Input
Amino acid sequence: MMYPRLALLHDFLSQNGVILLSIDDAEMTYLRIFMDDVFGRENFIAQLIWKKGRKNDAKLFSIGHEYIVVYAKSISRLRQKNVIWREEKPGAKEIHNEYILTRKTAMELFTQAQHSQPLAECHALRRCRSAFHLYYL
Output
């Protein structure tokens, strides 16, 4: 019953179209087989996991999620058109620049502290170590 509907959806989809299907764990394997057959394995884009907003009463494993399967009608067409779905989040570049500046400052403090005083007595080194641990641990 699912196969004829998927074939019809494939026909209706434009050449640069993408389809997203939500399904639970019980039917996931069958959906992937059907989609590979109708859309072609090469047009598979991703299998996402979506956490549902309900109480999970599972005894052994979490089953409070569904899958979202993503296929393109023609992934080669999407590549030709240079389709990109990712975009930079607002403020991400500023945060990254601040991180780089802080890391550079911390490393400079660390280097100065190593050359100026013994490690155990150096307040700047302790400050630097704290900054370093915040970014690397």
About this structure: The chain has five helices and three strands. Residues 92-136 form one domain. Residues 111 and 125 are 9 Å apart (CA to CA).
